[in-house]
Amino acid sequence: MNITKEQVDELNAIVKVAITKDDYKDNVEKILKDYRKQANIPGFRKGQVPIGLIKKQYGKAVLVDEVNKLLQDNLNKYLTEEKLDVLGNPLPKQQENFDWDKEEFDFEFELGLAPSFEVSLKTKKPITRYKIVADQKMIDEQVERIQKQYGKLVSKNEVNKVDEINGIFKNEAEEIENKFVIELDKVKSKKAIDALVGKKVGDIVSLKTKGLFKEDHLLTHALGLTAEKGEGLNIDVDFEIQEINEREPANLDQELFDKLFGKDEVKSEDELKAKIKEDSEKQFEQQADQKLLNDITEYFIENTKFDLPVEFLTKWIKMTGENPLTEDQASEEFEKSEKGLRYQLIEGKIIQENDIQVQFEELKEFAKGFIKSQMAQYGQMNPEEAELDAIAARVMGNQDEVKRLSEQLMSQKLLTLYKEKVNLKTKELTYDKFVTEVYGS
After folding, report:
1. Could you tell me which CATH class the domain 271-439 is placed in?
2. pLDDT per position as a tens digit, 150-159
3. Which residues contact 402 (CB under 8 A, 6 or more apart)?
4. Nearest in space to 65 (alpha carbons), one of 37, 27, 20
5. What burial class does residue 24 get, using C-beta atoms within 10 Å of its C-beta: 0-12 exposed, 13-18 middle, 19+ buried?
6. In sequence order, what are the residues at sequence separation of 6 or more whose Cβ sits closer than 8 angstroms to the Cβ of residue 27?
7. For residue range 17-34, what is the model confidence (pLDDT) as tens digits?
8. The domain defined by 2-113 carries CATH number 3.30.70.1050
């Protein structure tokens, strides 16, 4: 077998593979002999079928199969040995008058080659790194929410503006009958608040669904509807009041602090507020880091210039898609994926040049950290190490999970590198201002 490469240009090449009879003959004959031993053909005893008949029936199929295996194995080996950085997969060139009855075969494959380029981590202009701080207003609101959440309910005879009202929403025509607790501070409609205030247990109040709650998702929960059915719903519903309660705020005392954070972890209101600030800013840091990673990614894509083998990649998309594509459809698909491909190449080069690796042990520790944070959300603050190891072992046995966690850990490592090397400027602001500046609302 002989494999040669013909360079078309910097981004395209053709690999030629010449296969002779000596390359496949022994394997083909061995397989046909095995077929003969197992063949059940009427008129012949098992194992006694003439080899000529076996060749006539199966010879061509076995030949084609063996030659294709040789092609695949040796082409991949050649690309690896020659260290050819290809995009997509080699595409076989169509050959006129190809004849499987010949003893020697010539094949040609088109290659799309990865471009050569440089990536500079020192950006020309600084990229903004946001530092989101929890201001006093946010901390006070969080303290108020905690006091409300852990407070006790006091039964009331009549609704006022700070109460929680247990009742049933009903609309016979829409087949709505759903129990729900209305928290008046979450009601948006002034008409609805006025209609409810002053009412007593047993009263039935008619409410309009449109604009009833400050958050749209509350309406679907209130009426027991799917999000699709609840979206934009504008009907009248009856609300039958069954119970009226005022939530008396919990005292900011040691009992509450221990319930929230564990015994003696927090010992005063000031420490509580400091803890809320610390925890909030940790959560904000994740959001700010994601924004930074996105901005640096966009910068590299826009400022790292290189050409791609567009014609080859378009043809590759057309030929390898799940469904047949026209030339225009393949071009459209390439345009959609071009940005991602460019960053994939840029990221790969950064990883290679900075020798960033994900080792098994650190991936396992990363998985344990992820599991621990998940368990903490359900109140398991200090799981046993043996329990974490057991769960991590199950996670690491799932290839999809391993891939997902590896990508997350690699993103973390890249972000650490970018924070060290990229030209950054820090901007400190509150969460509300961050949302307004970044998302425009």
Report:
1. mainly alpha
2. 989 899 999 9
3. 363, 395, 396
4. 27
5. buried
6. 66
7. 999 999 999 999 999 988
8. yes
